[in-house]
Design brief:
By secondary structure, the chain is mainly α. The chain contains eleven helices and four strands; from the N terminus they run ββααααααβαβαααα.
Length: about 280
């Protein structure tokens, strides 16, 4: 099976191009808003629509700025040094979830300070909606022929376009590779998007101590990302960065897991609950 050749430009209006990748980001933010609004209507979130709109604005800015800066810092810093304008060409793809997470954390810290909201209560509130947006982002990766998987003889392996794997296989000539690869973007869509979303949505439907839902998100994403990275081709500029088998994505996910476990420590959990006690 060949990787579908999808034009990354959804709509061409002369000097204005509407890219699928950008549309996926807008759709991800829209789905996040709808899910949060649903929980407001159900009485599961003590916000009003104005508060939600304000929060989404801050989170969106943090996700985009953090995602792009994180990608440049963690994965393509040498590319940035050679071409600084690369930082701003978001439509060409290249966003880091871990950078986006740091950006969102920073944005929510600012939002919480300005609105006198409890930071960890807010993080618990938004965590169940995040995987849905992540899953939509992986569809954007799929459309952009990004995240080629590792070579496999698995029956569901696909032939990738040569232009999308040249940095991994410089001997690739013609339209498609002559070997098949795992469809890692779809694997991550299923794991980080669908499965993690369902688990967190169900888990968060009942009351928990402050920080527990956020911890579940950090741990759940870290595990799914760590596992699915074994099917994803390491970034050509970095390769394996530890022990000959750990990728940058796995290393960053290990730090996420440490953060999740820290939130579960009795001493930390007790302090979080005291900080929001009436």
């Amino acid at each position: 099976m060949q990787y579908p050749n999808i034009d990354p430009v959804l709509l061409d209006l002369g000097p204005i191009h509407l890219y699928w990748y950008g549309v996926m980001y807008m759709l991800a933010f829209g789905v996040f808003w709808l899910l949060a609004y649903y929980r407001i209507r159900k009485g599961q979130l003590a916000w009003d629509v104005t508060t939600l709109n304000d929060l989404c604005f801050y989170a969106a800015i943090g996700a985009v700025l953090g995602g792009r800066c994180g990608y440049v810092l963690f994965y393509t810093f040498e590319h940035f040094l050679a071409d600084p304008l690369w930082l701003f060409r978001i439509w060409e793809g290249g966003m880091s979830f871990h950078g986006g997470l740091l950006g969102v954390i920073a944005a929510i810290l600012i939002w919480s300070w300005r609105t006198s909201q409890a930071f960890w209560v807010t993080m618990d509130a938004i965590a169940p909606m995040v995987p849905a947006g992540l899953g939509i982002g992986r569809i954007g990766n799929f459309i952009n022929t990004e995240l080629p998987g590792r070579v496999t003889d698995f029956s569901l392996g696909v032939y990738f376009p040569c232009e999308s794997v040249l940095e991994h296989n410089y001997l690739c000539f013609g339209s498609f590779e002559n070997v098949t690869r795992h469809l890692s973007s779809i694997y991550q869509f299923i794991a980080e998007g669908i499965i993690l979303f369902l688990l967190l949505w169900i888990y968060s439907s009942k009351p928990h101590q402050t920080g527990r839902v956020a911890a579940a998100f950090l741990l759940g994403y870290a595990v799914f990302r760590f596992v699915t990275e074994f099917f994803r081709q390491p970034d050509a500029d970095l390769g394996f960065i530890l022990f000959g088998w750990i990728t940058m994505g796995q290393l960053l996910s290990l730090f996420m897991a440490i953060g999740g476990f820290t939130l579960l420590l009795p001493q930390v959990s007790s302090r979080l609950n005291k900080s929001v006690a009436p």
